[in-house]
């Protein structure tokens, strides 16, 4: 199609005919649309048209951290796969008792292990405190190194040497008396004589005659008991029954009266009972204190029972009066340092006491 022919604009009529009314039509169409939609947007306030959306906005610090959280391929390969189960032998057992004091470094390592994206130093030993709980040894009352009596020296004084000798002799004599006067063990075999066949025959005959005599005596006793019962059986009259009932009532009233008297006596003796209870409590406390002191004294001399055998203290290393020379060069060798240390460990309860084996 060709271009539209322009009209002549020589007169005013031509000017009025060629004026365009498109903008007026557009205005009317826009106004009708606004009226149908609820009003024009130009007259609406800005608060109803626009709002600030802060839900997706991130701070600068958060953006940097989010950028750092990106895991490289080489690090993702080393991460733990949640779909692969670990070998049972490689899993660490949880300690039974949780330690109360946990260091901050162990907390940091635990947080790091939970976060798969964080790197953990496998050679760091700070986080092993929670996994391995060492047993604390009880402090022993007995010192590690005991100083012996001055009478045990290589050149002691006469008084101290006599005291130690007397103590050693008393210990040895106590062992001897205990072996002699103690209870005898039960013998494994009982001595006896062999019985012949003829003697066995006579023993059986004597037992049979005794049994017959016993049977006869029992039969006679049964017959006499039956006769007594038959003689005692009598018919009870009404008067006898009434007497028995009155006697029962009388005995019941007497028992109730005695019971009331006992209750009244107990009420009167309440102060005495309270004094007796206080005395019993004092005696119990004293007994408990004595037991505690005795236990402490016992622990100073010997350790508690740990195994099958009891602790046997080593004999006192004292020289006889003939062996005292006054010189270390002439001193006779008596005990070694290893035995002394071993006995000390047993006495402090660090090693279970054992018996010296005879096998070599």
If you had to describe this structure to a student in words, what would you say it looks like?
This protein has helices at 12-17, 22-37, 46-49, 60-68, 73-78, 104-114, 158-181, 197-232, 238-268, 270-301, 337-347. With 360 residues, it is mainly α. The model is unreliable at 111-117 (pLDDT under 50). GO terms for molecular function: 5S rRNA binding.
Quick summary:
By secondary structure, the chain is an all-alpha fold. The chain has helices at 12-17, 22-37, 46-49, 60-68, 73-78, 104-114, 158-181, 197-232, 238-268, 270-301, 337-347. Helix content is 52%, strand content 0%.
Per-chain topology:
Blueprint: H1 12-17, H2 22-37, H3 46-49, H4 60-68, H5 73-78, H6 104-114, H7 158-181, H8 197-232, H9 238-268, H10 270-301, H11 337-347
Biased composition (Acidic residues): 207-224
Protein name: Ribosome biogenesis protein NOP53
GO molecular function: 5S rRNA binding
The end-to-end span amounts to: 131 Å
According to DSSP, the number of beta strands is: 0
Helix-strand makeup class: mainly alpha
Low-pLDDT runs of 5+ residues are 111-117
Shape: extended
Mind describing the biggest β-sheet? none
Cα-based radius of gyration, to the nearest Å: 56 Å
The overall pLDDT average reads: 77
Key features?
360 residues, 11 helices, 52% helix, extended, ribosome biogenesis, Ribosome biogenesis protein NOP53, Nop53/GLTSCR2
């Amino acid at each position: 199609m060709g271009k539209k022919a322009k009209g002549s604009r020589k007169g005013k009529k031509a000017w009025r005919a060629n004026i365009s009314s498109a903008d007026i039509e557009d205005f009317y169409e826009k106004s009708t649309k606004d009226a149908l939609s609820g009003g024009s947007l130009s007259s609406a306030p800005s608060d109803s048209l626009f709002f600030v959306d802060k839900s997706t906005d991130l701070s600068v610090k958060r953006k940097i951290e989010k950028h750092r959280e990106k895991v490289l391929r080489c690090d993702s390969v080393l991460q733990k796969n949640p779909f692969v189960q670990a070998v049972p032998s490689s899993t660490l057992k949880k300690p039974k008792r949780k330690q109360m004091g946990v260091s901050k470094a162990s907390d940091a390592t635990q947080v790091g292990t939970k976060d798969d994206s964080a790197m953990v130093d496998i050679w760091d030993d700070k986080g092993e405190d929670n996994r391995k709980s060492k047993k604390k040894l009880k402090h022993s009352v007995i010192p590690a190194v005991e100083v012996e009596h001055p009478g045990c020296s290589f050149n002691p004084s006469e008084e101290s040497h006599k005291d130690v000798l007397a103590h050693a002799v008393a210990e040895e004599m106590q062992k001897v008396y205990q072996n002699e006067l103690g209870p005898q063990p039960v013998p494994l075999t009982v001595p006896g004589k062999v019985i012949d066949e003829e003697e066995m025959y006579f023993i059986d005959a004597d037992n049979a005659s005794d049994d017959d005599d016993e049977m006869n005596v029992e039969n006679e006793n049964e017959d006499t008991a039956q006769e007594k019962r038959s003689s005692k059986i009598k018919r009870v009259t009404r008067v006898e029954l009434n007497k028995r009932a009155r006697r029962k009532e009388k005995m019941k009233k007497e028992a109730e009266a005695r019971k009331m008297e006992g209750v009244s006596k107990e009420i009167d003796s309440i102060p005495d009972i309270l004094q007796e209870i206080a005395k019993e409590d004092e005696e119990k406390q004293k007994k408990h204190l004595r037991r505690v002191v005795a236990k402490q004294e016992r622990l100073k001399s010997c350790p508690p029972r740990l195994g099958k055998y009891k602790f046997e203290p080593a004999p006192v290393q004292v020289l006889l009066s003939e062996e005292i020379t006054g010189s270390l060069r002439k001193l006779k060798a008596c005990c070694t340092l290893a035995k002394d240390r071993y006995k000390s460990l047993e006495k402090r309860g660090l090693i279970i006491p054992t018996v010296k084996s005879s096998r070599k």
